[in-house]
Amino acid sequence: MKPYIDLQGASGAVYRYKLAEDRDPRTTIAGNFVFIDATGTVVYAGEANNLHGAGNRFPEAAQKHKAEYLYTRLNVSGASRSDELQDIIAAVKPVMNRGE
Fold first, then answer.
1. Looking at residue 25, what DSSP letter applies?
2. Is 17 a residue whose pLDDT tops 90?
3. Once rounded to an integer, what is the mean pLDDT over residues 16-45?
4. CA–CA distance, 2 with 18 (Å, rounded to integer)
5. Do residues 35 and 23 lie in contact, with contact meaning Cβ atoms separated by under 8 Å?
6. What residues contact 54, with CB distance under 8 A and at least 6 apart?
7. C or N: which end of the chain has fewer Cβ atoms within 10 Å?
């Protein structure tokens, strides 16, 4: 998989995400994250005050939706994280975010 991916939100804004090697963000900084399957489809998008816990739902995503990759984007502003997350969810409609 690519070391970086660009995700376009419903607003048209483009957000660059970095691959977390071994599904470990290796940081405790706040940010957004996505789980991606082998075809490049976003199966889950989330935000965290501490990206160290970003992979908590990864086993579920891997088992139910064949997620293979975790990508992160550092973003310490809570309002920015939330806006970005909603923008991405509106655009790509990840299967695990439906009903949330």
1. -
2. yes
3. 94
4. 9
5. no
6. 20, 25, 31, 33, 46, 48, 70, 72
7. C
* pTM of the full structure: 0.94
Spatial CA neighbour of 18 closest among 57, 64, 75, 66: 75
CA dist 54 and 23 (Å) reads 9
37 CB-near residues (< 8 Å, 6+ apart): 43, 65, 66, 67, 68, 69
Residue 63's pLDDT is 97
Q: pLDDT per residue over 60-99, tens digit each?
A: 999 999 999 999 999 878 889 999 999 999 999 999 999 7
Report yes or no: 24 and 56 within 8 Å, Cβ to Cβ.
Answer: no
Element (H, E) at 48: strand 42-48
pLDDT at 100: 60
